[in-house]
Structure to design on (98 residues):
């Protein structure tokens, strides 16, 4: 449902749905919302989602790539450059197939 709302640009409704879920949302739920943020260029909600993903899975190469893609799609070039530099410094690498 989060993915469906997100694909249709109803990101705030998707956030409300997540908040009202009886169980704690997992990486899949947050990842669906982050993908929608990228598609619709919503960096504000995207940053909130990134915080949730960091709490769930910590810093990983895959998460760096998702964040980088969001920044690229929304033309935040300087932020993207800083993130890529941080990724290199941390030694984070994208997992194959992700």
């Amino acid at each position: 449902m989060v993915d469906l709302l997100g694909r249709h640009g109803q990101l705030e409704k998707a956030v409300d749905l997540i908040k009202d879920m009886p169980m704690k949302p997992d990486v899949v739920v947050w990842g669906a919302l982050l993908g929608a943020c990228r598609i619709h260029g919503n960096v504000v909600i995207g940053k909130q989602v990134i915080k949730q993903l960091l709490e769930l899975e910590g810093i990983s190469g895959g998460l760096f790539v998702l964040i980088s893609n969001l920044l690229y799609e929304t033309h935040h070039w300087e932020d993207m450059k800083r993130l890529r530099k941080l990724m290199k410094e941390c030694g984070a690498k994208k997992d194959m197939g992700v």
Remarks:
- Helices lie at 2-7, 11-19, 27-40, 43-57, 61-73, 77-90.
- The mean pLDDT is 84.
- Residues 3 and 45 are 14 Å apart (CA to CA).
